[in-house]
Amino acid sequence: MPQPDKRALLAEGLSAGDDDAALHARLVAAGVSAAAAKYEVDRLAKDPMAAMLRRQAARMAKQQWLLTNQQRLAIEAEGGFALDTLDRPDVAAFYRHYYEANRPAKLTGIVDHWPALARWSLDHFAAIAGDTLVEAQVERERDPDYELAKNDHRRLVRFGELIDWLRKDEPSNDIYLTAYNSGTNAAALGLLWDDLAPIDILDARGGRDGFFWLGPRGTLTPWHHDLTNNLLVQVVGRKRVRMAPPWASDRMKNSRHCFSDWANEPLPAGPGDADTPPVLETVIGPGEAVFLPVGWWHQVEALDLSASMSFTSFRRANAHVEDYTSYGEIG
Ligand SMILES: O=C(O)CCC(=O)C(=O)O
Fold first, then answer.
1. 226 touches ligand 1 (CB under 6 Å)
2. Residue to mutate (ligand 1; options 146, 175, 181, 213; most atoms within 8 A of CB)
3. Ligand 1 atom closest to the CA of 301, numbered from 1
4. 217 CA distance to ligand 1 centroid (A)?
5. Distance between CA atoms of 212 and 195, rounded to whole angstroms?
6. In terms of CB atoms within 10 Å, which of 116, 167, 269, 306 comes out highest?
7. How many domains does the chain have?
8. Which of 18, 48, 74 is the last residue in one of the domains?
9. Beta partners for residue 291, in sequence order
């Protein structure tokens, strides 16, 4: 029988905030004799690495307490933990109560003036850019990590071919033009920007700096958080958006970068429990939008053939990415 790795067990226990008795019990439960476990635990008293791990665990516990307070306040708030819908929001009120408060919202009436709402269709896309090469994310269904490995899934496709395939209206998560493809698509699909117009809550760039999303019914963007504040505007079809707050990150299984091991799990809307985060859920249709604050987890499913735009050009710096460093393994 293999010997338990006592150092690994101790490191695990110290990181979890175990006291000496809990560390001892952890070793014994893994098959270490009581005498050997006592020897190992006693030795930690002189180990500077153990002292540091203990301090780190205490810091983490303190931070978790602060986050739990955020949860209590949000759940006990008047109206409960809920997503507000703001119709034609006042710009100053939006910034004060949502953007600066790191609070999501569903927004309506902010793009009623966009010609895209009447114009965008597969025929329109084919007419203005059918012969153009666009970049898409492809072969997503064969790879459970298609978002994390998104570079491997980039391909150039003729826009007209993709449009013909979309006309079949088959549900699929295999191909999706996403914001990640914008480096190519912003130029390739430049004529589409003539169908957009400025949005009051954004800065003055007139909607021309947005990111285009086009895919069939059934695309799934797995649970992740963005590194910026983000506005997702729906133009064609509907999307279901699920959101979980940053203060519930202890339940988000965040083992890598900004991604969650919940992947596309349909975490239920509601206050959550000890294992699952509180979740807000909404469906946005043509002309509707959702404000996704930085750090909020979200998962998005297209319920129909869908075309959307997203924007990060708020009237604030929105530069949170500049001091983000956790790109690798976390959990
Ligand atoms: O619309 C989607 O599929 C995903 C949108 C999203 O996750 C984002 O804009 O950050």
1. yes
2. 213
3. 3
4. 14
5. 12
6. 306
7. 2
8. 74
9. 105, 231
What is the 292 CA–ligand 1 centroid distance (Å)?
Answer: 9
Domain residues for the domain of 35 are 6-74
Q: What does the DSSP 8-state code read for residue 257?
A: T
Give Cβ neighbours of residue 308 (< 8 Å, ≥ 6 apart): 212, 213, 214, 232, 233, 234, 235, 236, 239
- Which residue's CA is minimally distant from atom 1 of ligand 1? 300
Q: What is the atom index within ligand 1 of the atom nearest the CA of 213? A: 1
Cβ(213) – ligand 1 distance below 6 Å = yes
If asked whether residues 107 and 147 sit together in one domain, one would say yes
Tell whether 52 and 90 lie within a shared domain. no
Q: Which CATH number characterizes residue 195's domain?
A: 2.60.120.650
pLDDT in tens, 280-292: 999 999 999 999 9
Ligand 1 center–CA 241 separation, angstroms: 9
| Residue that finishes a domain, picked among 43, 58, 74 | 74
Confidence bin at 3 (pLDDT 50/70/90): confident
Its pTM stands at: 0.94
230 lines ligand 1 (CB under 6 A): yes
The reply to whether 50 falls in a domain is yes
Q: Is the dihedral of CA 245, 208, 200, 303 positive or negative?
A: negative
Q: Which of 287, 195, 170 is nearest to 235 (CA)?
A: 287
